[in-house]
Structures are given as structure tokens and as C-alpha cells.
Design brief:
The protein is α/β, with parallel strands linked by helices. The protein has a domain of about 150 residues: Rossmann fold (3-Layer(aba) Sandwich), CATH 3.40.50.10420. It has nine helices and ten strands. Strands 1-10-7-4-2-3 form a six-stranded parallel β-sheet, with helices on both faces. The chain has a four-stranded mixed β-sheet with strand order 8-5-6-9, sandwiched between helices.
């Protein structure tokens, strides 16, 4: 506990002039906050038969994930901003030691490459027979539950069953108190931002018409293009597949 009254902390001193504290920089405080919460989550995930460990930043996350992917394995990725921000796909291509299936490979203008446009559903199904499935997560609770929602299930389904190993990259900003807060986060943060991302960057104008994409809040719509349809709460791994899911919890903001 912090003593009260707090112990006075002197500003840095270089032997001549006292240096000013930068009140606008809360990097160390944020790092501490994320790390403390992450410790709780990692411990509770492990209790639920899910491998989990904490890394401080996306550079460490990239190294950790690459170490989890043996040479010669087949890797399929989900649609995940976190995966992209960590830079896993370019690193795997550069390493050139794995079969990589990317159903979200895009042209420079954000449209899907022709091969993906033609074979996208087939590529999605390849996730079930993959050695490794890469994804992010919409939310993780302090007591170690993984909460996700999909439009079609192409992401949540392989997390549950199919690929031999699932690697989830999760920014500490996605840690929530409980399942209720997780679902609220998905409806009112993940869905609106993700819908606008697809509308603005990927030419999916129909998603820009969703109420949440227009107002920034969920109205529990019945729109035909609604993206909150398949809700999955993973409360742990069955004993026979203990350790199949690997969580890399990153001490900075990642994803949506």
C-alpha cells in the first residue's frame, strides 16, 4: 500500500540543477497499471488450463509469438488488428519457414487480393485443420474468461475447436472486470469502431450503415449486416486439450 501521508519523492537531481518532472508523461504509471492487472489475468487463465504470459510491449510480443510457431507448421490468421500491429504476418513471410494462409490479405487500397476474393470461405475453413491459428480477442476478464463476438463465426469457431494450437495476442486495454463489462465493451467499443474500419478502409459501405457505425453506440439492432451475432465465452480449456490456447498479454494498447 502507498503510505499516508505519502513519502515525498524528490525530482531527479543531476548535482547542479533539479530537473523538472514532466507531468504530461504517465508512461510509467500506465505500465505499472497494465502489468498489475495482467498478472491477475495471467494467473487466472493458467488456472483455467490456458497458457498465458505477460510481455511489456509489441516488440516482445512478436518475439514470443514467433518462438511459439515451429518451422514447417501451417499457420492461419484471423481478422485481427492486434496481429497486424505486432507485425506477425510480415515476420512470418520474411522468415519463410511456414505455410501461411491469410484470408485477409489486401491490396494497397484495402480491397482483398483476387485470390482471397475467390477462395475466402475455403481459406476460412482451412483454419480448422491448421497447426496454428492466430487471432486477437475482444475482451478478457480479470478472472480469466475470453469473450468474443463474430458476424459469421470464422474467428470464434477455430478458437474453440480445430487447430492444434491457438495463439491470442491481447492488449492490456482489453482487460475488463467481468463478462457483463466484456459484452458492453464489444457492443459499444469494438463493434462501432470495427464496422467503421471495414466501411472506410475495406470498401464495405453496408457496414457503414449500421446504427453503431453511425452513432458510436449499440442500439441492439436487427440490421441484416449486424456484426454482433455469434457470442462465445471461453471459461477455460477441457483437460484433454489443456494448454491448446496460448495467450500473450501485452502491456500496451492493441487492437480495437
Amino acid at each position: 500500500m502507498i503510505p499516508f501521508p505519502p513519502t515525498r519523492v524528490e525530482p531527479p537531481y543531476d548535482g547542479r540543477v533539479k530537473l523538472m518532472i514532466d507531468e504530461t508523461d504517465i508512461t510509467s504509471e500506465t505500465k505499472w497499471f497494465y502489468e498489475e492487472r495482467a498478472k491477475v489475468v495471467v494467473n487466472n487463465l493458467q488456472k483455467r488450463n490456458i497458457n498465458a504470459h505477460y510481455v511489456a510491449n509489441r516488440t516482445e510480443a512478436l518475439s514470443a509469438v514467433l518462438e511459439m510457431i515451429p518451422e514447417g507448421t501451417k499457420v492461419v490468421r484471423a481478422d485481427s488488428v492486434s496481429v497486424d500491429q505486432v507485425g506477425i504476418i510480415p515476420a512470418l513471410k520474411k522468415r519463410n519457414r511456414n505455410e501461411l494462409v491469410d484470408p485477409f490479405e489486401r491490396e494497397t487500397d484495402g480491397s482483398l487480393v483476387p485470390e482471397v476474393q475467390t477462395h475466402r470461405w475455403k481459406m476460412w475453413r482451412e483454419a480448422f485443420s491448421a497447426d496454428i491459428f492466430l487471432s486477437g480477442t475482444n475482451a478478457v476478464t480479470l478472472d480469466g474468461k475470453l469473450v468474443n463476438m463474430d458476424a459469421t463465426g470464422n474467428r470464434v469457431a477455430p478458437i474453440i475447436f480445430g487447430p492444434e494450437k491457438v495463439i491470442l495476442i491481447i492488449g492490456a486495454n482489453k482487460i475488463v472486470k467481468d463478462v457483463n463489462e466484456a459484452i458492453d465493451r464489444i457492443h459499444n467499443i469494438c463493434a462501432p469502431i470495427n464496422a467503421r474500419r471495414h466501411a472506410l478502409k475495406h470498401h464495405l459501405s453496408e457496414l457503414g450503415e449500421l446504427p453503431c457505425a453511425r452513432t458510436g453506440r449499440c442500439v441492439d439492432c436487427s440490421h441484416e449486416w449486424r456484426i454482433c451475432r455469434a457470442t462465445v465465452i471461453i471459461e477455460g480449456a477441457y483437460a484433454r486439450v489443456k494448454g491448446r490456447i496460448h495467450v500473450v498479454l501485452v502491456g500496451e494498447e492493441l487492437g480495437i
